[in-house]
Amino acid sequence: MSALTIKPAEVTRLKGLGFLNNKGTDNFSARVLTVNGKITARQMNAITNAAETFGNGILTFTTRQTVEVQGIPYDNIEPFLDALETEGLETGGTGPKVRPVVSCKGTTCQYGLLDSFALSEEIHQRFYKGYHDVKLPHKFKIAVGGCPNNCVKPNLNDLGIIGQRVPQPDSSKCKGCKKCAIEAVCPSKAAKVTDGVLNIDPNVCLHCGRCVGRCPFHTVDDGTYGFKIYLGGRWGKNISHGQSLHKVFTSKEDAMNVIEKTILFFRDQGLKGERFALTIERLGFDTVEEAILSSDELLDRKEEILSKEL
């Protein structure tokens, strides 16, 4: 089949399945989904074999941690899908929906403050899979970062999570050392010895946890683990830096509920074709934050919100 005989409606349908038409040809690039960028060796072999058998043998990796198989002729799409299914793989990740979740390697990274693989897999199942048939005003991207190093840029996604470890200093144990071990290790310069006592500025502290256990006199021996959530980021032609909610969530379930309420708020209040960053700009961040944090009204109205017309 030539490119001229593939009807636009069919190209649109295939895009919804994760097959992007290579302009001027009957070939397509297939976006093969991963869960937070992680697949097994068997799955990688299945993708490789399918790419060689049904495509042009070229694999590329997207910024959203999917594997894109290039050069698949229209007539090879169905057998390509069948080949992927043998290893539990699927295509997708397009359209005005919750997109596949991206994650850093915080589970194994020395700086990781949360199990980013496990958390992103749970978000994938609950919101990418669970909301797969829910049409939103625009695409909605989620990223999970294990620490404030920001490697996967959570604050440039519609919703981003960053692992936290909020230090709990005990000033009574501080000796006022002229060369403070906490000051030396603090990357944000939030920690300073003033008048012989260690102070950590909460407005400057990144909650990276690097100070915990560094003081020989046990001034900072512990820190509270948690989740910092950013809303309204995006990259592209127009960049918006997400703003953080004004609290660190110490309960995973609280953080998951915030994600769900944010998605419901976007569907309820967003305008068709409007990215979440623009919804926040139009309504005001304080208004959005209050609606998401002040009550469970959005969860109570879930069925109504999901069934309404955009």
TrEMBL record:
Does Iron-sulfur count among this protein's keywords?
yes
Query: Which SUPFAM superfamilies does the UniProt record give?
Result: 4Fe-4S ferredoxins, Nitrite and sulphite reductase 4Fe-4S domain-like, Nitrite/Sulfite reductase N-terminal domain-like
Alphabetically list the UniProt keywords.
Answer: 4Fe-4S, Iron, Iron-sulfur, Metal-binding
Q: Where is the 4Fe-4S ferredoxin-type domain?
A: 165-196, 200-225
Q: Which residues cross the membrane?
A: none
Q: Name one GO biological process term.
A: sulfate assimilation
Keyword RNA-binding applies:
no
Name of the protein described by the UniProt record:
4Fe-4S-binding domain protein
Organism placement in taxonomy: Bacteria, Bacillati, Bacillota, Clostridia, Lachnospirales
